[in-house]
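Here is one chain, start to finish.
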Amino acid sequence: MSKEPLYSLRMRAAQGGAHEEGGLHISGGERLGFRDEIEALVSGLLRKALQHSRGDADFINLTIEKVEPASCRVLSPLPVSTYEVADAEEGRRQAAVLLRELSVSEQAIRNALCLLGSVNNLRGAVLLDSRSGERLDTRGERGIRVSRMDWDRERYLYWQNQHPLFGSPRIAEAIALATKVAYAPGTVAELCWSDDPEYVTGYVGSRRSGYCRITRLKEQGDFSGGRVFFVEPGTFISEYIVHLERTPVWIG
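Its structure:
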């Protein structure tokens, strides 16, 4: 790990005003980088905000904050597997199978599928008790925003060469986030599908099973989606949230 100053860059974009004023969530992005990378990283985040299928953003918030490099945790990326399914119904059945294998309860699975299938303005993740299915955070549509994670650049190039089918920025970002979540103390599993209307692939993530891509978890044109983190009962939720939002993580 370099001792150069390290910066966290966080972007969120909405349409119809700021998120806090009821604006529709359009996009978000998280990067870590050194001083000489900031300009390029900012340009990439702005492109993501301004060229998005959910709509035209008229509110963009960009935050840049120095991070102590010594506080960074280094994690290996979750292994990737893919489950080919014919439609969203089959995809959600497959997700339920994977979650059961990780000891997530039937109630928690039902609650998560119902939630993700019905929301279209969820800006962060929802925390559910992995046994009771009860919601553990009180953030509403704001949810929990996992932050301060990115790939080590050289390790990403190596990983990309080993996984040529999964080299898109979208998948790279998702694996970085899923890896940080999976290794957070208290995480049992994650279920996610994008709220982008043209992107129907989602995943179940966990330390035990890795990053399990499911090729269809919703139908084309559907704006629903988001993330659910299934949390071990007894986890100190305030500490869990601080870890997800504040602890810097390099993937590599």
